[in-house]
Design brief:
The protein has 694 residues and is of the alpha+beta class. It has 23 helices and 18 strands.
Length: 694
């Protein structure tokens, strides 16, 4: 086991050099560059080095060195990205522009005619943040129309930075349902999605609580473990949902009587209601909560336990598009960690800011430029410290990305169907998640929780710098537009009448035999809101449908819209990194329930564009000279054996080479197609049975 505190070997020798802000205990949390010779001789360093070398050889999922990773310093310090990350970002930007140009040549986007200009947001200054209380939480859908082009609605949240950003850019608050953007602090009810127009944006997807409620997260992760093997979804500490699984927990507890467990309410935040237990009599038997195995060996910096707040934005679930922000926070406990310390000391075991700020030993950041001082650091400061300690941060962030992607995939069978049923337009919803990640002394990231509405409080200059830029970049990326109120009001009335007529005919046909039944009304509601059955005409099938596609001209209009939206969104991403789709993420395909043609289409268009164009150019030249059948012998020049590949969208074999396939692992040696990770699926899939764990 690696030592808990990697800096313990040289903390004492540098103690005299360490600046200390005035506090009651003369305590600070600040890092200084360790001496190189001391690091090389440290047992911790040698173990870390060997461990990461071994892990890197076996790593098969997303590579953060290609997609880019947070903490580069470009947001806070203006540091320029260099090396492989820069090369890949420039290459992808070039491909983006080429794809957009090609789409413009072959397709006229009818939506562009009715689209209003995008609003360009800039981060606000700390002095511009409003101190006024948030508007009333009494939501009224409203039947009246406001004529102002820029309206927003805040519901059940303070969101001062969001409100101030919108106010500074000419928006006005409204109580009606005619807003341009709605920012909520809770899960939206189904009726809030009714009657939305294409330009409206809301900051939550339906049923996104499937990964933000602790019990739902545990349940969905367990299902993935049973289906694909625990090794592939081993990012959540062993967890039981109480009181339903008390019997299973009781048996596990008595196998290891000296282990520590942590109890958490299912739907509370900011560390409320969390406590540690090591005695079965302390475990609640009637409360709705979860109980997780306590991670006993957290990585420490200056003797303090810490976790990471990573900001991830999902702009679409089908196709899946995930972005991670360039900056976040490392949040430190306020008292030194002891493995056998008092379990009731919340300042030692918990890293929540809302708890530790009450400690006498808490040190607040006072300068955004000094982002490694106090009990909150930036991710840039943390990366710099870890690099000085000999940690391969690219591998660490690859593993964190893997946790984020797989966590979102755990709800993949629930959220996308709900979106297709409830949300009128593909781009109405987006979601800003706050992933809390704990790193242990073996450099393994553990998922602590996912926050539905991460705190946007700006209690320090560092908080404000990161969160003000975060909000402006989020609003720019999702694309907030002006709305012609009168025109939209007329279109909405016409649309409602048309939809009502269709629904009436559909329901009367489907439930003709039950029209006089008392259950009729409930059946209608269940079908519309809760059934979430796959519709054969859904956007998923429209995005692929099994059609053979050899070029962008072969894409359906729906596919062209998806591709164009993705390309334009990437150009507005600001300080975000897109981690899905990203180079190599086709390896996650086995974890989806069935084929996702829209994901495949995007991946191949984005990452096989140059080779694809070269191939079709060669095929066209040969066909002109020798006839249509002669192109069968053309192959893209590579050092690999002859292979067949999949098309842009559905994986159907065509007369091409393996450069269009999702990756080289998708082809067997005998040339037959094989989906990435097929061996993993065959070897690891097990039926969900009564056995919870082995």
């Amino acid at each position: 086991m690696i030592e808990h505190d990697m800096s313990a070997n040289f903390d004492r020798e540098e103690e005299r050099e360490r600046p200390r802000p005035a506090t009651s205990d003369n305590y600070t949390c600040i890092s200084l560059k360790p001496r190189g010779q001391q690091i090389a001789e440290s047992p911790s360093f040698r173990k870390i080095k060997l461990l990461q070398i071994s892990e890197k050889k076996l790593w098969k999922f997303i590579d953060s060195e290609i997609s880019g990773y947070p903490g580069t310093g470009r947001l806070l310090h203006g540091t320029r990205i260099k090396g492989i990350v820069l090369d890949n970002m420039e290459s992808l930007h070039k491909v983006n522009l080429e794809l957009l140009q090609e789409l413009e040549k072959i397709w006229s986007d009818n939506r562009a005619i009715r689209k209003s200009p995008l609003i360009r947001f800039r981060p606000i200054k700390e002095s511009q943040v409003t101190r006024e209380a948030p508007p009333s939480n009494l939501y009224s859908k409203g039947n009246y129309t406001q004529q102002h082009d820029l309206l927003y609605r805040i519901y059940k949240t303070d969101a001062r930075i969001v409100r101030s950003t919108l106010d500074m850019h000419g928006f006005m608050h409204t109580d009606s349902h005619t807003w341009n953007i709605m920012w909520m602090g809770c899960t939206p009810k189904p009726y809030l999605f009714e009657g939305l127009n294409e330009a409206q944006r809301i900051n939550h997807f339906p049923m996104s609580y499937e990964i933000t409620r602790k019990d739902k997260l545990a349940y969905n992760t367990l299902k993935m473990q049973e289906k694909f093997g625990r090794d592939n979804f081993d990012y959540l500490p062993e967890t039981f949902i109480l009181p339903d699984e008390f019997t299973e927990f009781y048996a596990q507890f008595h196998k290891e009587k000296k282990s520590m467990w942590i109890v958490k309410p299912t739907a509370l935040s900011r560390g409320r209601g969390i406590y540690l237990v090591d005695n079965i009599s302390e475990v609640p038997v009637e409360e709705s909560c979860i109980i997780s195995r306590y991670v006993p060996n957290p990585m420490l910096i200056n003797g303090l336990k810490f976790d990471l707040r990573v900001y991830a934005v999902v702009t679409s679930f089908d196709p899946l598009r995930i972005y991670v922000y360039d900056e976040g926070l490392a949040r430190f406990a306020s008292e030194p960690y002891k493995a056998k310390g008092a379990k009731g000391n919340r300042y030692m075991h918990l890293t929540n800011y809302s708890i530790n700020k009450k400690s006498d030993k808490f040190v607040q950041n006072e300068d955004a430029e000094s982002d490694n001082v106090g009990n909150k650091w930036s991710l840039s400061a943390l990366n710099k410290y870890l690099e000085q300690m000999g940690v391969d941060v690219t591998l660490l962030w690859s593993k964190i990305y893997d946790v984020i992607i797989k966590t979102l995939l755990s709800a993949e069978t629930i959220i996308p169907p709900a979106v297709r049923k409830m949300v009128p337009y593909r781009n109405n919803c987006f979601e800003l998640f706050g992933f809390d990640i704990l790193i242990d002394s073996d450099l393994k990231p553990w998922l602590v929780e996912v926050n539905l509405s991460p705190s946007l409080a700006n209690d320090s200059p560092l908080d404000h710098k990161i969160k003000a830029n975060l909000i402006s970049d989020v609003l720019n990326m999702v694309g907030v537009r002006q709305i012609d109120r009168r025109k939209e009001s007329a279109l909405k009335a016409k649309s409602r009448l048309k939809n009502w007529s269709k629904q009436r005919d559909s329901y009367s046909t489907k439930f003709a035999m039950n029209s006089n039944d008392k259950r009729f009304d409930s059946l209608v509601r269940q079908t519309f809101f809760a059934g979430f059955k796959e519709n054969p005409k859904s956007s998923n099938n429209a995005a692929g449908g099994g059609r053979q596609i050899n070029s962008l001209s072969d894409l359906t209009n729906k596919q062209k819209e998806i591709l164009k939206d993705t390309l334009e969104e990437y150009e507005r991403k600001g300080h975000f990194y897109r981690i899905f789709p990203a180079k190599g993420t086709s390896v996650y395909d086995p974890f989806f329930k069935g084929e996702r043609p829209s994901n495949t289409m995007l991946y191949n268009a984005l990452y096989n564009y140059g080779a694809r164009n070269e191939y079709f150019k060669q095929r066209k030249d040969v066909q002109e000279k020798t006839g249509p059948g002669a192109s069968q012998g053309i192959l893209y020049e590579k050092d690999t054996a002859d292979t067949s590949v999949k098309t842009l969208d559905s994986g159907i074999d065509v007369e091409t080479a393996d450069f269009i396939s999702r990756d080289d692992s998708s082809v067997n040696r005998d040339g037959r197609n094989r989906s990435p990770g097929a061996d993993l699926r065959e070897g690891a899939m097990t039926s969900i049975s009564g056995k919870r764990r082995k």
